[in-house]
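Hey, can you fold this one?
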Amino acid sequence: MSETKTEVFTIAEVVEPAAERGISSTNKKRCIFEQYVQPCLAELFGTSLFVFVGCASVIGNVGAGGVIQPAVAHGLALGVLIMVFGQISGGHFNPAVSVSVYLCGGMELPLLVPYVLAQMLGGMTGAFLAKAMYPSNMFAESLGGAFNVTNDLGKTTVAEMIMTLFLTTVVCMGAVNSRTRSPWAPFCIGLTVTANIFAGGIVSGACMNPVRAFGPAVAANHWNHHWVYWVGPICGALLTVSFIRLLFGDQKTRVVLK
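Sure. Predicted structure:
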């Protein structure tokens, strides 16, 4: 009896670690996918849909004029997409948002560059989908939803900076900062985009998102002062980070007066 028991326990000791190793390997692969691959796929897919709706709302608004249709379309699309993908990737869909969230401690550094690349690819995909849906004359007349600087470059850049400051402040305070985080963040972020387009649409187009400018610029081959829509939003994002890190962040986020 003692020999039999010894044999059973010996076999169990050999088989159990092998099973544990198999489970551990599977869990590790799942963890890598959910931490790094799935968020980038969500950013790619979500940005594609957002830019598609944004460009389509501008192309379909040709002749009607005004900012009501683009403002409502952009705001609703962004709010819904953040609600759907927020738990996977954070629902950024915007390099300026990704930069501000990272610098405020809301995401890991290894994800920053992949996020931006996924968003750029998504912006191009969404713009080309809008191009495929609309007649070529409507696409050409609206520049495919691309932004065309018609005002002073300085004022346009400042407008983009201020509007992105507003947007990224809402994102970081509503979704990242622990003291002010709210389940209403997707709704508030969508409303902020809508309000900004109402406020600054006639000045700069109210882009607030470099890939929203990049995608249709590629699809329509329209690069007139394209740099404005990178410099303005990134500067606005950096201002947001400065305010939150110095003034409005929680104890973990602030770098002074902890």
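Residues 37 and 55 are 27 Å apart (CA to CA). Let me know if you want another pass with a different chain boundary.
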